[in-house]
């Protein structure tokens, strides 16, 4: 699953009390950024809630702001002792490598302490059509970009024109990654530098262990940590947060509050009233069942990709960690019931699921257009939720933390920054919704109402419908995308679009592509190099075990 934070809130429903500022805040004379008057500098950021959202934000802010500002700015995190983190296995996006590097976390330590493995992409089974006994259709979304060895040659048009040969998927023709991943090879070698590899990659990891690692690292970076349960949120006379009251530590004040309280959205929603905008008319799934599944043996191969398998009312994820798999079924309660969903999940897993408990989660796709309101900004599930199909949850946390750190108004004037932040994050959510919907609406499955409803044009956002119409006569181009609000590069859209066998007809424009022979030679080169790349890279499990052992040795020496 994505998100990496609490799915069951550890906070009581806050009692927002207007015009009752905490005495400490009043004495400090805190003036909030939405006022037009001159603003004093920020001194303290309080993050309410832990998990991946809280601790990743805390780490990034502590490391970035203390280096960049050269001034006294404290970061404090308060969380309840009732952790309640879902630990079924977490998928990430390649941006996580830059974030982990930025906060100064050693890669081998991360792999060992978070029970992490490498992720080279996502394999999609039965998404185009239901299994019919004649073979299964699947396609791959690799994280590596199409070959750019021939820098002035865009391969996709030539693939559409047949230069790669018949029956060769675009992802297999333009990259070596599927060939490598299918052979249980890792994307990097043991001698490669931290967060660097021969192929692009992200990770799978245990969410609870990752949060605990971030907490330890954050405290080392100087994040102040309090264990306390927030009972109330008090507002000042202007409707901003004056303080949060905790059961154990009393009133806590700050200049900026970061809401990482999960689905409860205790500050941004419960106290400040920022409205949630549902996307359930576009993305129908709203429940998940998850089971932790052991491997058949301790040396079983670990797939270096998420396996997403489509079913009658949703899809299953299968994530390989070091000692177990995290498997779950994401489904629409409008198209099936919980008992049937559990049947589907257990049937998919097989006998290894016998006797294992399934945990249910409930959610709704959507986001808050006002994620930064007055002196409070939401990060993670309190800001919005996207189903974990493309592992966007932690990527959205990363982006929010990045924007807070680099847009933060050190003079305290938050009005314009909040507006800019909300524009960027809202647009990013909308584009992710479009990208996820594309996986569903291009399906040719007709075996259930779930798939028929997803193909209904009324459920497809206007922007996506317009793009799909344009892409019938030309492939996606970088000009179709605005970089600062896109999580996915054009190549990702291309891999999904043509993995789902979208019909783009370039024959009328054949004359515009004069380098057919060069492209054919490049496809042949990729095909010939793929086995050599696989032979040059280590076994996936062997690399993971090597990194764990290396970190253990380093820890023992230290």
TrEMBL record:
<feature type="binding site">
    <location>
        <position position="390"/>
    </location>
    <ligand>
        <name>L-tryptophan</name>
    </ligand>
</feature>
<feature type="binding site">
    <location>
        <position position="381"/>
    </location>
    <ligand>
        <name>FAD</name>
    </ligand>
</feature>
<feature type="binding site">
    <location>
        <position position="394"/>
    </location>
    <ligand>
        <name>FAD</name>
    </ligand>
</feature>
<feature type="binding site">
    <location>
        <position position="230"/>
    </location>
    <ligand>
        <name>FAD</name>
    </ligand>
</feature>
<dbReference type="InterPro" id="IPR036188">
    <property type="entry name" value="FAD/NAD-bd_sf"/>
</dbReference>
<dbReference type="InterPro" id="IPR033856">
    <property type="entry name" value="Trp_halogen"/>
</dbReference>
<keyword id="KW-0274">FAD</keyword>
<protein>
    <submittedName>
        <fullName>Tryptophan halogenase</fullName>
        <ecNumber>1.14.19.9</ecNumber>
    </submittedName>
</protein>
<keyword id="KW-0560">Oxidoreductase</keyword>
<dbReference type="GO" id="GO:0000166">
    <property type="term" value="F:nucleotide binding"/>
</dbReference>
<dbReference type="GO" id="GO:0004497">
    <property type="term" value="F:monooxygenase activity"/>
</dbReference>
<feature type="active site">
    <location>
        <position position="119"/>
    </location>
</feature>
<dbReference type="InterPro" id="IPR006905">
    <property type="entry name" value="Flavin_halogenase"/>
</dbReference>
<feature type="binding site">
    <location>
        <begin position="50"/>
        <end position="53"/>
    </location>
    <ligand>
        <name>FAD</name>
    </ligand>
</feature>
<keyword id="KW-0547">Nucleotide-binding</keyword>
<feature type="binding site">
    <location>
        <position position="119"/>
    </location>
    <ligand>
        <name>7-chloro-L-tryptophan</name>
    </ligand>
</feature>
<keyword id="KW-0285">Flavoprotein</keyword>
<dbReference type="Pfam" id="PF04820">
    <property type="entry name" value="Trp_halogenase"/>
</dbReference>
<dbReference type="InterPro" id="IPR050816">
    <property type="entry name" value="Flavin-dep_Halogenase_NPB"/>
</dbReference>
